[in-house]
């Protein structure tokens, strides 16, 4: 429930506004806005108890008055305290040197994670695979993801062995502070693949206000000038100076010129990092067959690439409610948890078909992880058949309903 309210609050609000057209169709526009605000308040209030982070989409989270009184730093402190409590349990079974390194730095690096023979088979699995994928563009960089769902894994025995390794699961759960199967993808980073502004991921930032996990298992060597991972050691710990900076940022975030800062992923420069007492950012050029797991609530970035190149990896991600974990979570079961990515993509497609949102992960047809071709991405369109006939029918009804409500609103106001 909380995750749904967090992820799709804008869509709920859009529907609620449409419903109000009927009840207030002959009232003043001022009354309409007042009732819309009243109806939206419970949603905004519920989002305070989730991982919702956008200062622009939620006027409570983005409230200057509330953040001057400490709302943002209070949410952050509560989330970190709750995660620390869960991590004490989730750290059992993690080798002591790795657990200590993570507690100190906010990341762990494990070279030669797989035996050579197992890595060779996994690499062969990925090289041979050709099938559906999704792509998105950020600046001049294209990111391609292939969901590692059970259908794909059925033809990848080497990949299944990687994902089933206990150490991988324990490290991602420790870093994320959640006993949950993360989302797994084969990810391809293609810097300078298209014409555009610089990749926004090159700027140091924290993903959100609370601890969260990302992991990279390298399938290609990553050189210093080939988009290496960058992390500020120890920045997962909220120091007093960091807390003061977070409060200043939260007060101004809703009106920030930086779109991503306004949406809760604060951008930062190296001088500010130094002023907070953290060490300089560290770059991680790594050979293939290396695992790195990090708390991306700490400051990190994607390193710059000198030329148009390619980075291929197995990428894991998990971000749930930071304040509480459900006692029964079906996503803990790998057989179910690995279906989450196609379900999420299908739901995003349905929202776009319905006119309630935009799917940024565009479909690619038959493609491989090592393909450099990104042609057709800009022209890719979410097809109406992607959710099956129930999705087509329901999306069509919602789309027509929203169009009718829009016309009625224009007529009555």
Notes on the structure:
There is one protein chain. By secondary structure, the chain is of the alpha+beta class. It has two domains: 1-47 and 394-413, no CATH class; 62-382, Jelly Rolls, CATH 2.60.120. The protein contains 15 helices and eleven strands. It has helices at 2-23, 29-47, 64-68, 71-90, 96-105, 116-128, 150-153, 157-163, 166-176, 240-252, 259-262, 270-275, 334-337, 340-354, 388-412, and strands at residues 107-110, 131-138, 141-147, 183-190, 213-218, 229-231, 282-284, 291-295, 300-302, 311-318, 362-367. The chain has an eight-stranded antiparallel beta sheet with strand order 1-8-5-10-4-3-2-11, sandwiched between helices. The chain has a three-stranded antiparallel beta sheet with strand order 7-6-9, with no helix packed on it. A hairpin with a 2-residue loop joins strand 2 and strand 3 (141-147). Helix 4 (71-90) packs antiparallel against helix 9 (166-176) and helix 6 crosses helix 8. Residues 1-8, 18-28 and 378-382 have low confidence and may be disordered. InterPro entries: Phytyl_CoA_dOase-like. This is Putative deoxygenase protein. GO terms for molecular function: 2-oxoglutarate-dependent dioxygenase activity.
